[in-house]
What does this fold into?
Amino acid sequence: MEFLTDKAQPVNRKPMTFWERIYLINIFIGMWITLKHFFKKKVTVRYPEVERQFSENYRGMHILNRDEEGRENCTACGLCALACPAEAITMEAAERLPGEEHLYREEKYAARYEINMLRCIFCGLCEEACPKDAVYLSQSVVPASYKRKNFIYTKEDLLIPFPKKETKE
Ligand code: SF4
Ligand code: SF4
It folds into this structure.
């Protein structure tokens, strides 16, 4: 018989012995493995009552940052969206109008800024690409939901009320 690859294995059609047919030995082996795990250190925690400490490098949900005067840092330059390998970021730019200087730091701002958390792979490239210290990945976990639309985070969801103190090196 000719095989397409050298990985093909012929099926073993040998009749089962008496001990193989009653499965007792395999059941005892399985129970022995289960019993051994009773006395081992647990690898799971009782989430959500118990939460694991994340590593300092953990990348969770995004935040949009403000400056010291509370103005939005983002200038809608689009670099984060361009850097995003998952195409998770969508934005629309708008021009700052006279009298809006207390809201937006630069002459352009993001009138719409959305991140699709279902697409995001939390790689942090958007944070790296941003020249304005505007987008960061926080340590918060994106909450679970049964609805897809709940994973589209808008600018209002992402903007933090106070400026993030830590700056990138
Ligand atoms: S963390 Fe990565 S995948 Fe998620 S929005 Fe930023 S660049 Fe895109
Ligand atoms: S978050 Fe940063 S990189 Fe993205 S559009 Fe705003 S200023 Fe540009």
Q: What stands out?
A: The domain at 62-158 is CATH 3.30.70.3270 (Alpha-Beta Plaits). DSSP finds five helices and five strands in the chain. The CA atoms of residues 38 and 144 lie 31 Å apart. The pocket of iron/sulfur cluster (ligand 1) is lined by residues 83-86, 88-89, 115, 120-126 (CB under 6 Å).
